[in-house]
Amino acid sequence: MNPPPSDSAEASQEMGWTPIAEEAVRAASVLHPKEGVLPRPDRRRVLTVANQKGGVGKTTSTVNLAAALAVHGLKTLVIDLDPQGNASTALDIDHRSGTPSIYEVLIGEVSIAEAAAQSEQSPNLYCVPATIDLAGAEIELVSMANRETRLKEALSSGALDEIGVDYVFIDCPPSLGLLTVNAMVAAQEVLIPIQCEYYALEGLGQLLSNIELVQQHLNRELSVSTILLTMYDGRTKLADQVTNEVRNHFGDTVLKTVIPRSVKVSEAPGYGQTVLSYDPGSRGAMSYLDAAKEIAERGVNERSSTT
User: Fold this and answer.
1) What percent of the chain has pLDDT over 90?
2) What is the reported pLDDT for 14?
3) Which of 83, 130, 208, 219 has fewest C-beta within 10 Å?
């Protein structure tokens, strides 16, 4: 015979744990963090999220890291530099043709502040969307003056001060063309997502060579500050092998936090949401939150070690 509801509730409280209760607690900790805001950087941090290999979690990582920082009180701007506009979709930002977008910013028609739209998911989260017009931008940029520095000029300190952001994340297309070069010239840091799968390091040498060329000729401040392991599946030996290989090769540049392969993370963009909004108690949401904390705290630690 089943116990009455009151007895059942008391038993659950005495046990102190149920899967649903645990997820509810996790969701509350994500949406209403008790620890307060993460440390604000002394100077604005601009990170380019790049990997010319498709399907490694560039856009997913961009929007979820930005959302995690925003939840913790840091004003964050996502620049969607991919003509597919997936970052704009995930943040539920209008990116129909004719909407003020990064394309108009690059050709000098509007400012970053005019093109930036606030996401409904957080008052601290902004996005400059990408429209289909961006698809032909690389061809147009070839004939323009200062073609490699168009985005850097648009992201001047004065322009970003109008929005007042602490972090800028630039989501690059899966290529090493002029749009990605513009992103690297405009940033101080490169964040490289690497999936924990076969061929994870394929093509990475070419990306690092391009970063080195940009460092030498266009942006001496640029550095690969962060590598994020994504799509980790703990059930496979391959995931551990790739993780160990990446850590052995890149050392402390690799975040301790690893992003698991997650259905919730994959589903969220279909609802115009980040995983932190779609399912804040999920493993994917908690992992991106931990990764964002690492990025914020590393910035403070690196700053302290240089003073």
Assistant:
1) 72
2) 47
3) 208
SS3 113: helix
Query: Could you say which DSSP state residue 40 is in?
Result: P
pTM of the model: 0.87
Tokens describing residue 227: 């590598």
Q: What's the rounded Cα separation, in Å, for the pair 103 and 84?
A: 13
Domain ranges of the chain: 37-232+249-283
CATH number for the domain formed by residue range(s) 37-232+249-283: 3.40.50.300
Query: Helix/strand/coil (H, E, C) string of 153-174?
Result: HHCCHHHHHHHCCCEEEEECCC
Angle at 126 between CA 260 and CA 78, to 5 degrees: 50
**Cα 147-168-50 angle, rounded to 5 deg:** 65
Expressed in angstroms, the distance from the first to the final Cα of the chain is 69
84: left (phi over 0), alpha (psi -120 to 50) or beta: alpha
Q: For the beta carbon of residue 126, count every other beta carbon within 10 angstroms.
A: 26
Q: Which residue has the tokens 């599946």?
A: 233
Contact 239, 232 (CB under 8 A): yes
Q: Where are the beta strands (DSSP E) in 134-176?
A: 167-171
Res 30: pLDDT:
57
For residue 110, the Cα-to-chain-centroid distance in whole angstroms is: 24
